[in-house]
Amino acid sequence: MLRDARCPGPIRLWVLNVAQGVVLAGVLMILVHTFGLQDMLAGPPGVAVFVIAATGCTISIHLVTIGRIQRQIRQAIAEATAGHRTPICLSCGFDCAASEGDYCPECGASLLISTSGRPLP
Ligand SMILES: [Zn+2]
Fold first, then answer.
1. pLDDT in tens, 9-40
2. Are residues 65 and 21 in the same domain?
3. 36 plus 69 within the same structural domain
4. 26 and 71 fall within a common domain
5. How many CB atoms lie within 10 A of CB 118?
6. Residue 121 is part of which domain span?
């Protein structure tokens, strides 16, 4: 089920996110210098600005990637339990395997999945 969600391992995830963050920061730095905006960055030297930009870009890309992976995992769980009750709340991630009802005791979302793989209201 998780294989279907195409989730990278933690090392691969961080290597990809740092690489993308550094590339994005480099592109931003080139754009800043192309349009002559480097005077607005008066203060720290260029390397410090690049490190700060790369860190911010890496964190932003990582948060976007984690959100995408969460959506893929929830979709894989919904597809694997289509037509049945899911043991994990797809809204909040609460483990509902021990609960009896059809609604999440934590957030109240429905645990029933339609045959098309979508949560029922
Ligand atoms: Zn819930």
1. 889 888 999 999 999 999 988 888 888 776 66
2. yes
3. yes
4. yes
5. 13
6. 83-121
Query: First vs last Cα of the chain: how many Å apart?
Result: 23
- List CB-based neighbours of ion ligand 1 within 5 Å: 89, 91-92, 94, 104, 106-107, 109
Whether this prediction's pTM lies above 0.85 is answered by: no
Q: Is the dihedral of CA 23, 26, 31, 32 positive or negative?
A: positive
Is residue 25 in some structural domain? yes
Number of helices (H) and strands (E) in the chain: give both, helices first: 2, 0
Q: How far is the CA of 81 from the centre of ligand 1 (A)?
A: 16
Cα atoms in the Cβ-side hemisphere of radius 13 Å centred on 119: 19
Return the SS3 of 109: coil
Residue 72 lies in a domain: yes
* Domain total in the chain: 2
